[in-house]
Write a structure and sequence with these properties.
Elements lengths: L1 H28 L13 H5 L7 E4 L4 E4 L16 E2 L7 H74 L13
Antiparallel strand pairs: 1-2, 1-3
Helix pairs in contact: 1-3
């Protein structure tokens, strides 16, 4: 059971890593095309326009600029760090920080879950197994003790019967002397 859980966890982790690699390769292969963003209207028209995902809104000079998600991850050429790339509500720097924190929390959760599954649950199962084995051992010892007591009582009866037969023992050894 423990080995089965570990192997399933490894397979799932391998599939997740493969999925991320395929997604990253697909993302990087489509990010090389040149885009003409133009349009100095508004943040909403720039980001949600025809080239959605390829344009970013620069808040400092209020212009729409071409945006490459791979090379312009922290700064945008001609704008600096104050730009909006995926939405007009949260600055791109905060989106990157939030994504990093989210990924870190996800990895922490996976790590804690893995440790709990592999260590803590296994320890509880081992403790249950040890308690069960101890109970079985005690039950066997009690049976053996009861068997020995029965044998001892039977032997004592036989010895007493032989002593009575040959007069070596009185029926009641605690009689009053006259």
């Amino acid at each position: 059971s423990h080995y089965f859980i570990q192997s399933n966890l490894r397979m799932a982790l391998g599939r997740i890593v493969a999925l991320f690699v395929v997604a990253a390769l697909a993302f990087l292969s489509g990010a090389t095309a040149e885009v003409e963003c133009g349009g100095n209207g508004s943040c909403k028209s720039c980001i949600n326009g025809t080239f959605s995902g390829k344009c970013a809104w620069c808040a400092s000079n209020e212009t729409c600029l071409a945006y490459d998600p791979v090379s312009d991850i922290t700064t945008l050429k001609g704008c600096g760090k104050d730009f909006y790339a995926s939405n007009c509500v949260v600055n791109h720097k905060l989106v990157i920080i939030g994504a990093g924190v989210g990924a870190g929390l996800f990895l922490l959760g996976v790590t804690v879950l893995t440790i709990w599954c592999c260590c803590c649950r296994g320890r509880k199962a081992r403790l249950k197994k040890v308690a069960k084995e101890e109970a079985e051992y005690q039950r066997q010892r009690d049976q053996i003790s009861a068997k020995h007591e029965a044998s001892r009582a039977e032997r004592q009866e036989q010895h007493d019967a032989i002593r009575m037969k040959y007069g070596l023992k009185k029926p009641n050894s605690y009689e009053r002397f006259d």
